[in-house]
What we know:
Shape: globular
Radius of gyration: 22 Å
Strand content: under 5%
Largest sheet: none
Helix content: over 70%
Order of helices and strands: HHHHHHHHHHHHHHHHHHHHHHHHH
Amino acid sequence: MLMVVALSAVIIPFILLVLLRMSAIKGMSISTVVVIVLAMSVWGMNGHVIASSILEGIHRTLTILFIMFGALVLLNTLRNTGAVNRINQGFQSISRDMRVQLIFVAFLFGSLIEGAAGFGTPAMVTAPLMLALGFKPLAAVATALIADSTAVAFGAVGTPVLVGLSTLPEASTDFYQDVGLTTTLIDLFGGIFIPLILVLVLTVFFGKGNAIKNTLVMLPWTLLIGVTYNGSAVAYAFLFGPEFVAILGSLTGIIVATITAKKGWLLPNSVWTEAMQADSDTGNEQSEMGLIKAWLPYIIVVLLLLATRIVPWIEEFTLSAIDLTWSNILGIEGIASEWELLHSPGTLLTLAAVLALPVQRKPFSDFGQSVKQSLSTIKGTAVTLTATLAMVHVFSNSGLNMNDLMSMPEYIAQGMAETFDTMWIFVAPFLGGLGSFITGSATVSTLTFSPVQFNIAEATGSNVNVVLGAQLVGSGAGNMIAIHNAVAASAVVGMQGEEGNVIRKTLGPALLYMVLVGIGGFIIMWIL
């Protein structure tokens, strides 16, 4: 009975959004009410803790809406200045094939944004950019979410490793580096296939036939990109630690992808454009804007993100200057929501949009128009995100109860551990993915489950670093199906109400990735 209640935050949204195809606003509202009732009646959470958790969810919703706003303002500004059209022409000069463009934008550029920012930002940037490049909305959102996976374990300058493992008794710089390196080794068995999986999803769900053929012809090039990213990630994890794995890996991949795609190496002669919107006219109007000038606002975003996270005095200033963090909500210790306004990707994306205007010699009226467009797009998302995050935080804070029960996440983990015992390495990535599915954060998933994973590894005599590596990569796989990521990414392309359809497209790749991670973890454990 208790296990069913603990899993209610997973089972109910899955049934309502994926199986019954309800819109997220309706499905998540119902899910939240049911989970709150069960948390109070069965788990023994009092009304004060429930109210504090709901307020935590509302505050967290504001932080995500702000990132959405920044991503949309930047995109709409660049649309108004003509930069997006020039960016599209740049991609077409490399390749007019949408399968190639998908790898560049969703996987490589998305991984770069993930490495610098994390916290759901990549899909909110890449999905609308792909939409502007002519991709069908559902194709843009689904592939953006699937692509934002391999880099997630090292997102936001290594935060899932550095923060997610920080509560463990072994926590130290050497420990983080060892786990980070092990994580990249495990991902050699799963991450290298993500570019191929992306192409498969694109051709199967959005093509007009011959999906397998249209995927297999891309096999050599996609494997090259997968091996380049993940192979270089191993080297960067060994040389520099976890902070720069995603950033340097994606930059290496971009260089190799650009050279090979321009020369047509390992690519088919045919051009695939079947995922193009019927009324798309991208690239028809030639732009006189320079390509570097068109891309400069995005370059500024990456530089600002890096500066605010690796330059000590800038990081300290942005973390403390305008701090809207809400600590000990309603006086309950440990329930808090962080929001350092200047450190938020939303601020940096908005600033890049403002800077784009003088750089591209456009009037500031373009920015005002972009703000109106962006606010109109996200206004209907607030209720859905609030409901989703209220449920998430009730679930996470369920350890604060009057029945002396462990939290729901811990109860789930304990039950799984007792069931699988020595075969745990195959289950570890699914626990990490479960955490990301519910919370939408690899960092929160790892913070929640890493102590459990650590204890299970020691109890079963498994290699601790391998089990924790499987947790980290699994949390990246779970990011593909994270509820509030699907809500946010759908909103920025105007697809409110289609979140269940998005998750149906991303669920298969997520589960496949977790299986591959389990196999990779088993092999690495056997080698070590």
